[in-house]
Amino acid sequence: xxxxxxxxxxxxxxxxxxxxxxxxxxxxxxxxxxxxxxxxxxxxxxxxxxxxxxxxxxxxxxxxxxxxxxxxxxxxxxxxxxxxxxxxxxxxxxxxxxxxxxxxxxxxxxxxxxxxxxxxxxxxxxx
Length: 127
Known about the structure:
- The protein is mostly helical.
- The protein has one domain (2-119).
- It is built from four helices and no strands.
- Helix 1 packs antiparallel against helix 2, helix 1 (2-27) packs antiparallel against helix 4 and helix 3 (64-91) packs antiparallel against helix 4 (96-119).
- The longest helix is centred in the middle third of the chain and has 28 residues, at 64-91.
- The chain is elongated, with a radius of gyration of 16 Å.
- The mean pLDDT is 91.
């Protein structure tokens, strides 16, 4: 069930990201990479909260600083992957949306593993 909820959260975040990308790229006519940056940062802030509280059900705030720090590192890594993929797609005449979709698939897989194994790992209970 957690994987399904994670995928729903990722898809919802993807829709928010693509909507913001449309506003920035097509309506505001910003540079494609700037559009990706603004959209990505905004969507990721919502993504963290949704996954922490709803999907992984982590309500303990004692590790919040560590979780936010790890999340920022992961988002930075995923952002670099996203920019690389979008730039690569733009170079072969694919648009920013195709690049973002491909990057979204790649980074969603990476993110799930990081969330499950590191960031929102449940503490082991000692007996």
